[in-house]
Amino acid sequence: MFEAAELNRKVTKAEFDALAPALRVEMVQLQQDLRKAGFPVVVLFAGVDGAGKSESVNLLNEWMDPRWLVTRAYDVPSDEERERPEFWRYWRDLPPDGRFGLFLSAWYSQPLLDRVHGRIGRAKLDARLQRIVQFERTLADDGTVILKFWMHLDKKAQKARLKRLEKDPDHHWKITDRDWKHYKLYDAFIATAERMIMQTSAARFQWQIVEGVDERYRALTVLTTIRDRVREELDRRAAAAKAVKTAGKRRSHVAVTAGNGARSSESILDSLDLTQRVGRNKYAAEIKKLRARLHAAFRKAQAQGVSSVLVFEGWDAAGKGGAIRRVTSALDARGVTVIPVAAPTDEELAHHYLWRFWRHVSRAGRFTIYDRSWYGRVLVERVDNLIPPDAWRRAYREIDEFEAELTGHGTNLVKFWLHIDKDEQERRFLARQSTPFKSWKLTQEDWRNREKWDDYEAAVNEMVERTSTAAAPWTLIEANDKRFARLKIIRTVCESLEEKLK
Amino acid sequence: MFEAAELNRKVTKAEFDALAPALRVEMVQLQQDLRKAGFPVVVLFAGVDGAGKSESVNLLNEWMDPRWLVTRAYDVPSDEERERPEFWRYWRDLPPDGRFGLFLSAWYSQPLLDRVHGRIGRAKLDARLQRIVQFERTLADDGTVILKFWMHLDKKAQKARLKRLEKDPDHHWKITDRDWKHYKLYDAFIATAERMIMQTSAARFQWQIVEGVDERYRALTVLTTIRDRVREELDRRAAAAKAVKTAGKRRSHVAVTAGNGARSSESILDSLDLTQRVGRNKYAAEIKKLRARLHAAFRKAQAQGVSSVLVFEGWDAAGKGGAIRRVTSALDARGVTVIPVAAPTDEELAHHYLWRFWRHVSRAGRFTIYDRSWYGRVLVERVDNLIPPDAWRRAYREIDEFEAELTGHGTNLVKFWLHIDKDEQERRFLARQSTPFKSWKLTQEDWRNREKWDDYEAAVNEMVERTSTAAAPWTLIEANDKRFARLKIIRTVCESLEEKLK
Predict the structure, then answer these.
(1) Same structural domain for residues A193 and A77?
(2) Is A71 on the interface with B (CB under 8 A)?
(3) Any chain B CB within 8 A of the CB of A440?
(4) pLDDT in tens, B257-282
(5) Within this chain, do residues A231 and A292 fall inside the same structural domain, yes or no?
(6) What average pLDDT is seen over chain A?
(7) Could you read off the pLDDT of A486-496 as tens digits, one per residue?
């Protein structure tokens, strides 16, 4: 695989100096066009030590406008990072729309080194590479351009480089035992890299292998590759934008049809028995027991570092807020965060829609409770045609992958849909209207949403169908009776959490 | 001090139920008015265990709109938190403009417990309380309303409560050994609390002591206090807004006068010898040595967990970017973050201006390099009259306190002003204009700033005078010669860092 990068290609100083000025102007122009076009570019560098990874990053920092460029390099994960899913730290650092993000020692680094040092087997390596593919696909689907450079040196060149640096009094401090240790693992390293590159080279995020011996050659290769790939995407978008202007209306129409089409005549929600009720006395006795049980499980989870994420979705006025308070009051406030999902901030809007949920992923042993969640993507954003149909269709897979990162990390993920029927909702709306301290909860928006009940019902059914996985199943709550609903919710949280505890 | 909170005051259920509906409406209305007025409210709860701290927070969460309310409670600091100054985690969590933030077990908790358990003496307690006063003053000066509740129970009530809960089969799980241990320390706890309250009760952020025996009494007290204090501030602002509309122009004028007035005839900058030069060969030899020295110090600092923060300020075209690259290329990219300070995001604008710098405070052992910094407050924001004069005058103290948090935590803070003269700047502007790959660096803004050279010079002189402290001195760099400047900068970073290392 790497033979083509072992040809000892060189660029003379005169050649380089002739090309450099124009290329610098192009790179800066590229940044300005990118800002206008408003999509992010992720440039990742991996490869052999000494093949010019950080030199390339330094050059890009020198030639481009640092205000629209972020550079991130990673070490072994910190305690707080280890307490969260592996990709959390990369999600945090993703560049917003219109900017370049340069990544060093990033998501490929740990799997590669873990395999080379024999800490994981081949199957485990493949599984981790698969997750990387998912991660990159999620970003690419959202419009991120991903460029990956493998900076290469053959074994002889690597040895010559280390020897040369060691003899040089000005650079010998750069060479440590670690470098020679890596050199001894060269063959294993290259074999693993080959596997890694093969498995993670989808059409949209090909690896570019760069011969790293000659400083000028590799600089030109990296720079022109970035320039061409980003320019190509800018042109493609400009052309697409023209085409979309006329096609806009047709696309919305497709969304509505698809929504109705996906609806089954007998829906999952229809099968719920909403007549179930719990009397006041039974409720009082039960809730006390359940709260004590939840509190005990919570303490144990804190000690064992098991986190819980509770997702509350449901019809307007289905009782999400009240149910959440019944859960939180059984817990220690220091270990719980409630996140009501409202309009995104501009920092959030400038990223993939999952970014705002990744940023709230908690440390070990905590409860994070979402009052509405990432499912808004396949509910309100779908029903109100806020996004094109392919965006919400894609979201089922993205959500599954996101949740798999959480549950794969050991998080206890519990998802509730609070279901009431249309009559009960009307009763509650009217009651809110006539209770002064509750009337703020009811807006015109709520009445408007109510008119779209059937569309929502179709969306909910499809959501449950597509995202109820073994590791993260939906629990449907019959919520016409608040007492019944609250007991079932707390009981479900207890059972689910206890299962995860030793 | 607490006698007034030991009177066993009670509110009957009938009384409470009569008041509650109107109060709920008022609280929600308060939130809506607060959003429009656009300032944050911090509500902090401290006090005796069982006196209703978390119950009050729960009630506020129940009665108010959770979308405009954040609740934060703290445990012992995590590893990542311990690697940063104490207040970092509170800064991160401050509510943005227009929202309430409820804080439990927050900044008073650790100092109080450390003193009660004898881990710190009285002098150290006082020093920590002093830093809390600074923190709260910084927020209050920026328009944050701070309300602090001390929830109280006398010793007898505390004992009775613990006994009662222990006997109750539904609540006995809430009582742990820790509770009885705390009870034994009751007297020490109260004595320390008294000292704490006395020292941290400035007029603008008085403690409110609340008798906690009766659930309904304490709820009414907390709610009406919040309502009245926030309403008062809303009214005050509405009145002030009217008054300012006519006085707006006069205030800008004051800023300019003050700027000129503060200028000394012989300025600090005038005293620099800008003729100092370094030849090409000497530079090449020197920079190699300095890079190796810096790299060695950096490795040692990583091992010892000593962080560095480098601040680069200077005239446009003084060579900040080039100098920064000479520093970073001697370091390992994984341990360095460069932060070019550009326009703030909306999340940043909705907080105190220091918030955006607090959020970048790094973990232990890293370099954080600012290309422009928090000093923009007393430079461009002052010179361009972007803020009222009292805001930038206040900023000197705020910056000193912020930097004292960093240096007090052991951070190596180095601040550079890169100085060139007006002729040299013109030469560089013209050179940029005629070099295609540099012309993007030069904007109309730069020429406009140049016209305000004298105002900037006055602001720089005052900045250096007011913020050059023993722990965080300014280093003025004679930068007419780039080679001279770069050597001096790296040498200064080396010396300063080596001093902090064991």
Answers:
(1) yes
(2) yes
(3) yes
(4) 333 444 444 678 888 999 999 999 99
(5) no
(6) 89
(7) 999 999 999 99
The pLDDT tens digits for A325-341 are: 999 988 888 889 999 99
Q: Give the residue from chain B lying closest to A78, CA to CA.
A: B80
Domain count, chain A: 2
Is B14 inside any structural domain?
yes
CATH number of the domain at B121, please. Answer: 3.40.50.300
Whether residue B485 lies inside any domain: the answer is: yes
Tell me the residue range of the domain where A61 lies: 3-240
Which residues of chain B from 76 to 95 reach within 8 Å of chain A, CB to CB?
Answer: 78-80
Q: For residue B71, list chain A residues with Cβ-Cβ distance below 8 A.
A: 333, 337-338
Residues B337 and B230 in one domain: no
Q: Which of A35-49, A238-252, A296-310, B336-350 has the lowest mean pLDDT?
A: A238-252
pLDDT band, very low/low/confident/very high, at B421 (cuts 50, 70, 90): very high
Task: Check pLDDT > 70 for residue B249.
Answer: no
Quote the CA–CA distance of B9 and B217 in Å, as a whole number: 7
Instruction: Identify the closest residue of chain A to B290 by CA–CA distance.
Output: A170
Q: For position A261, what pLDDT does the model report?
A: 40
* Same domain as A379, residue A317: yes
Supply the pTM of this predicted model. Answer: 0.81
Burial of B153 from C-beta contacts in 10 A (0-12 / 13-18 / 19+):
buried
With an 8 Å Cβ cutoff, is B178 touching chain A? no
Cβ within 8 Å, pair B25-A78: no
Write out the two tokens for A81. 């990072």
Same domain, B199 and B276: no
Query: pLDDT averaged over chain B?
Result: 89
Test the B interface: residue of A173, A223, A348, A434 with most B CBs within 10 Å: A173
End-of-domain residue from the set A240, A259, A277: A240
Same domain, B366 and B288: yes
Short-list A233, A231, A224, CA closest to A22: A224
**Can you read off the two tokens belonging to residue B69?**
């309310």
Considering only the beta carbons, identify the residue of A20, A67, A363 that sits closest to B342. Answer: A67
Q: How much of chain A exceeds pLDDT 90, in percent? A: 67
Q: Is any Cβ of chain A less than 8 angstroms from the Cβ of B338?
A: yes
Answer yes or no: are the C-beta atoms of B45 and B108 closer than 8 Å: no
Number of A–B residue contacts, CB under 8 Å? 125
Distance CA B439, CA A28 (A): 10
- Both B209 and B303 in one domain: the answer is no
For residue B108, the number of C-alpha atoms closer than 13 Å in the C-beta half-sphere is 25
Contacts with B170 from chain A: Cβ below 8 Å = 288-289, 291-292
Residue A383 lies in a domain: yes
Complex ipTM: 0.76
A501 contacts chain B (CB < 8 A): no
Q: Which residues contact B402 (CB under 8 A, 6 or more apart)?
A: B354, B357, B358, B374
Chain B hits for A292, CB-CB cut-off 8 Å, are 170, 173
To the nearest whole angstrom, how far is the Cα of A122 from the nearest Cα of chain B? 28
**Is A347 among the domain residues?**
yes
Q: With CB atoms and an 8 Å threshold, state whether B71 touches A440.
A: no
User: Is residue B313 within 8 Å of B418, Cβ to Cβ?
Assistant: yes
CA B218 to chain centre: 32
Residues B293 and B421 placed together within one structural domain of the fold: yes
